[in-house]
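Appendix B. Extra example for self-study. Work through it before the problem class; the solution is given directly after the inputs so you can check yourself.
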Amino acid sequence: MTFRIGIDVGGTFTDFLLVDGAGQSRVFKVLSTPQDPSEAVLTGLREMAAAYDRSLDDFIDAVTLIVHGTTVTTNAVLTGNTANTGLLTTRGFRDALQMRRGVREVPYDNKYLAPVPIVPRHLRLPITERIDHDGNVVDDIDVKDIEEAAAALEGSGVEAIAICFMHSYANPDHERTAGEAIRQAIPDAYVSTSAEVLPQVRFYERTSTTVLNVAVGPILGRYIGNLTRKLDDCGFAGVLLIMQSNGGVTSPAVVKTLAATTLLSGPAAAPAAGLAYASLHGVDDFVTVDMGGTSFDAALIKDGQPEITTHGTVNRFALALPSMEINTVGAGGGSIAWIDDGGLLRMGPQSAGADPGPVCYGRGGTNPTCSDANLTLGYLSAGYFAGGRMPLDAERARHAIETRIAKPLGMDAVEAAAGMYHLMNVNMASAIQEISVKKGWDPRDFLMVCAGGAGPVHAAMIARELEMTRILIPKESSIFCAAGMLRSDLKHDFVRSLNTVLDRDRLGATALSGPVAEMEAEGKARLSHEGVADERIGFKHAIDLRYAGQYHEVSVEVPADAVHGFDEQRIRDTFHAAHNRLYGYDLADEGAAIEVISLRVTATGLTEKPPLIEEPRRSAQPDESADKGRRPVYLPEAKAFRDVAVYDGDRLAHGNRVTGPAIIEQVNTTVFVPTGFAVACDAYGSFLMTDEAAA
Amino acid sequence: MTGQPAIDPILASVLQRRLKSITEEMGLTLLRTTRSPILNEARDFVTGLYDAKGRMLEQTEYIPVLAFALQPACEHIIEYFGDDIHDGDVILHNDVFSGGNQNNDVAVFKPVFHDGRLIAWSACKGHQADIGGAVAGGYNPEAREVWQEAFRIPPVKVIEAGKRRDDVWNLIFANVRLKMVEEDIKAQIGGSVVGERGVKALAARYGVERFLTHVDYLFETAETMVRKEIEAIPDGIYDGESQAFYDGVRDGSVMTCKLRVTVSGDTVTFDFTGSSPQTPGFVNAPYSATASALMLTFLMLINPDIPHNDGITRPINIVNPEGSYLNAAYPAATTFGNTLTGPTSDAIFRAFAQAMPHMVTAAWNRQMGAAVTGNDPRNDDEKFVDILFLALKGGSGATRGADGYDHIGLINCAGGILAQDYEMFEIHNPFFLRQHEYLPDSAGAGRWRGGLGVETEFVMNGNEQTAIAFGDGIVEDARAFGLFGAGNGSLNIMEFRQPDGTTRTPRSKEIVRDLPPGTVFHQQAGGGGGYGDPFERPAELVAEDVLHGILTVDSARTDYGVIIDPKSLTLDVSATEQTRRNRS
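Solution. Structure tokens for the complete assembly:
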């Protein structure tokens, strides 16, 4: 028997999905250990070993793969505990990082402060040198400046150094010179040049990304060192892979040099997980939603492709490396209900978090939360939360809602709780609109894949807000990202900036294939190094294009032959179509000039996915063992409690059908099936919920 | 109010969220479908929903200066058309003498009907790339009347009961230089349709009476919030004054804003009586521009979380007699009106410094901008135009508990307009940047210091180059002032160093023609004013600013009484204590 393990370190829990060679899976959850997250990883491994009656060493021997998502880098930036970092930059431009192009995100709050720059000004050192946008050297690099800078940074105890010069994407020579000199002068420092990290036009974004990379580099290095040492100690001989923000995984050796690729990796495995479950139903257009304790993440997948963005931010600093486009809003089980000065009910974005948590946890929380409302309305069961391991205090929750919300609003506790529930659903529906309507997609054409412990209580009513009619609740919904990690491929992104007019005659037939072939070779080398066989390596190509005169480009995917052969017409057509979808118009008829800003290659190494076990089909009627009786549950359309059937979700079988109103309870989640909805259990243990009233 | 039986407070919360979401979707529609970078890049537009009487239900503004510029026009349109408003009408408007705030800001209004009854208005207003007049783009320091600035559009139906009036439509766009503007107005109509659809759906879902009652309730809740904020301000009369400099016509001209703020219980009155008469040039504001300036500044003084609807303006009275440069009478030129937000906000901050010292902000650096046009020799002498946002963004004023915001730019936009990316700036324009960095010693000294200004220098390599300078803040009295013993911010400086060695320094409003290739543009955008006694600023923070090179050792000593060793840049604690103690 062999095992594969997906490990997702969250703020409160560290989630594990264990899959054996036959495809049987088990879920484990342990409390996270923020000081050293690898502690919780080890605790989880011990629990798993115990569950199989094995010693840790025996168990580890059988583990062939661990895929690990870590938030150590993200937390370092958010808490200001990054490495002591320096920056060498072109003379005259040392403040670009701190300026952030002069944005203040909150217009009317004059007490709103700018974030503290990751590199303080006295460690941002100007170097005399200059290259123009065509890559021509205007001023030679002054080697003496570099020597002085190296001495100054070493004297300040800097352990990480970013080097970012103007237009280095067009000519990296000066950065290379500076990089070599610095690496020689301070051999222990973690050094990146911007052309190594992201050879792409836009100075602030490139500087910020490079600085983020080096500022978390030493931290990630130490963490991975720690983790691999612990795994080695118990004899782990399998493969360890790390989750990246782009939704792919990579080896520890590679991620150590590109540490910033982990910065937005927290929710990045969700689309891969969604794809695995949705494809079983022949669906490749879907929205994944993941509702946890403090936040709600939504992502859209069209034709099996997640949307990718290069406009990420971490603590308000730009991170331009490709990452999954995921909309995160402050809505979760812990979202606090409050009444504003005008007397209106609001939900969040403040959250009671895990500590003290919602009132019903009985850990000292006094602010009524979304979970308290769900309990008051009967969606959650006081005795079966976390499978009964964590009793909830319904009376206390109701009392908090009564005094803090219901009384001031002049209503009873149930009405207030129903209002809280409703407002949460409206807020989450808005978050889905952001990633669908805003991008030119109609949410009604998409399946909702719902995850997170708190999600399935709300899924149906969120769907109704958006007139979405189909919801898939995966078997492993509560540890969705850990499941996604085991289904992610190795993935590396490359970019080259061209900044020229799209014109085959002028540029020559090989203008695109040259840089693209170079990037493919780099990708192949990196994947080979990670042990991927040639036949499992694939490439995707994209070009960032815009109409001449525009300020923002659109990244469009193009087939390999179109880019290698420079099929200008096909590239144009693809761009016009993408522009039309996004912005409602195109300039195809006007024959407008198009500019190529950047070329992109994504190199993918297919991993071996755990098999999914198909259960035999049973009758539509659930087995008696799944019947948990009835209990009163608040039905929104009736505005009243009704006794509804309650099912044990872990005992429902393939083919079973449950019609609303009903409740389906599982150890880590609860599904609310409102009137008009019906649930079908699929062959893989997931629930497909359909709005039959709308159909 | 909560006792009224007909009100479901939950529905009110839900409606507010939905109305907000509709205006956001209208905004996204504009971002997606407009062509001008002023709209889809600088986001110089507002989308809003209004009730049948023209009262604001909800809106989404990306740039504060437009925040309160739609409601007056909506009210005017309702009065103008009276009963003659029908389902399917679309009304166009830009006229600054009937509720508009700036000629280039053209609004589209669409009435929303439910069962034959007018229940609301959906509107989008955006800054058009051109709207006729003597110069492309509309900023014309040489204008003396509105007609040299723009084609006037008083309320006019371009679509009547669903049918486009081609004669009217063509008349308007025959007077506009750019085809793009016609497309952008179509996009605004599209945005208004999105709003109309959203409101209709709400009325259908909840019933129109219920919808309207709850909308009234939303007004009341916002009004309650603002009244609570005003009640917290001590009753009294607070005067504030400020000057704007040079009207573009008369050398040495000064326009004075005389403001009397009267706080009485839960209402506040802003009285501009006695402000300078309107000017012969374009340095004039229409009523709506001044009202918008006032509201955006006032919102910076109170809880920033209050929903934006009609309720928030109810406790606020504005007295602004016609004929002054802050409410110019027909047919004045007024394109500079939005830029007067800077000096007008100064007067407001000065007045409130007496009333609510804990919330007031010191003065922000005033905008001094330039738009440069020319031909790009790299590109067959194709025309280029750039508004030099990166160079004009100075610092904001400090407030209690917070230093000013560095490089934020004009108060009208409050950090909503971004500086150009350096590399894109050079790719787009025939310019070569030499410097863009914080300007040392630009921030007003204080317990909390002002925001830093920036220094910009680049070589202009285009042909036929012209710069249109528009702004203020280049004469001594226009410095961003500090409050409560703090220092002032530095001044703006703009100059063109020509290859022959001569330097041209434009007035604050001037068209600078024939700038040869090789001319070096140099600008300092000044810092914001400080707040509180600089000698009370913790010496470590002063030392940190010196270490960071944004404050000189000399200024640390003279302005802050902080002694720093010029070699090691370390703080001399005992010398500092002595210096600070010895101040008489």
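Self-check: Residues 1-5 of chain B have pLDDT under 50 and may be disordered. If your reasoning did not lead you there, revisit section 3.
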